[in-house]
C-alpha cells in the first residue's frame, strides 16, 4: 500500500477506535443502575439511591449498599424519624432476608467482595441459617484477612457465635488478625472486643507493645 494512502487512512482508523471506545463505554454504563432503571431496587428509607451514590455506576457495589441499608433499616428508620413501635419482628425478618438476597445478587457479580460476604454472613445469621453464615464469614476472612473497614464489624459478628465456632482455628486466627488491626488503626474501638475476647486481646497486645 502506498505511504500516502496509509497516511490518509490513519485518521479514519483513529476515529473508528474512538467510536468503538465510546460505544463500549456507553454499553458498560448502560448496564448500571445509574442508566438502567430496571437494575434499581427500592431502599428501606425510600427511593432507589444508595447512601454512597457513586455505586450507582457499579451494579455489584450498588446491590451491596442497598443490602447494607436493609440490614440496618432500624438505624435508617431512626434517621427518618419513623415510629419504631410499628416495627414488628416479622418486619425485621423481612428486611434481613432482603439484605441476604441483595448480598447474594452482589456476589454473583463480584464474588471477590469481602464486604458482601460479611453482609451475607450477618444476614444469614438473622434468617437463622448459622452454618451458611459461618461459611460466608470464613470467605470474608479469606478475601480480606486484614481490613480496617471490616475488623470491628467482624469482631461483633464473632462475638455472637458459639464457643465451638470461635475455637475453629481459621476463625480464631481471623479474630486475632482483626484484633491486631483494630489495635493498630482504631484502638478506640477495642473495648467491645476486649469484653468478648479478653484472652485474645491480651495475647495480641503483648505482641504490639505500643498499642494503647
TrEMBL record:
Record flagged with keyword Signal: yes
Keyword tags: Signal
Signal peptide positions on this chain: 1-21
Gene3D superfamilies: Tetratricopeptide repeat domain (1.25.40.10)
Superkingdom of the source species: Bacteria
Name the UniProt record assigns to this protein: MxaK protein
Species in which this protein is naturally found: Tropicimonas aquimaris
Amino acid at each position: 500500500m502506498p505511504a500516502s494512502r496509509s497516511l490518509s487512512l490513519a485518521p479514519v482508523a483513529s476515529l473508528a477506535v474512538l467510536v468503538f471506545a465510546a460505544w463500549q463505554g456507553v454499553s458498560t454504563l448502560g448496564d448500571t443502575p445509574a442508566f438502567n432503571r430496571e437494575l434499581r431496587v427500592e431502599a428501606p428509607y425510600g427511593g432507589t439511591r444508595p447512601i454512597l451514590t457513586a455505586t450507582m455506576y457499579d451494579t455489584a457495589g450498588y446491590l451491596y449498599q442497598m443490602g447494607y441499608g436493609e440490614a440496618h433499616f432500624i438505624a435508617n428508620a431512626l434517621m427518618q424519624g419513623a415510629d419504631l413501635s410499628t416495627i414488628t419482628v416479622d418486619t425485621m425478618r423481612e428486611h434481613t432476608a432482603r439484605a441476604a438476597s441483595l448480598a447474594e445478587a452482589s456476589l454473583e457479580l463480584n464474588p471477590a467482595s469481602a464486604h458482601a460476604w460479611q453482609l451475607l454472613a450477618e444476614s444469614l445469621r438473622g434468617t437463622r441459617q448459622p452454618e451458611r453464615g459461618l461459611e460466608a464469614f470464613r470467605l470474608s476472612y479469606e478475601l480480606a484477612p486484614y481490613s480496617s473497614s471490616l475488623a470491628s464489624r467482624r469482631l461483633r459478628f464473632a462475638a455472637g457465635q458459639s464457643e465451638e465456632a470461635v475455637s475453629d482455628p481459621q476463625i480464631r486466627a481471623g479474630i486475632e488478625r482483626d484484633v491486631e488491626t483494630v489495635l493498630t488503626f482504631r484502638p478506640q474501638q477495642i473495648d467491645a472486643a476486649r469484653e468478648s475476647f479478653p484472652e485474645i486481646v491480651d495475647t495480641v497486645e503483648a505482641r504490639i507493645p505500643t498499642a494503647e
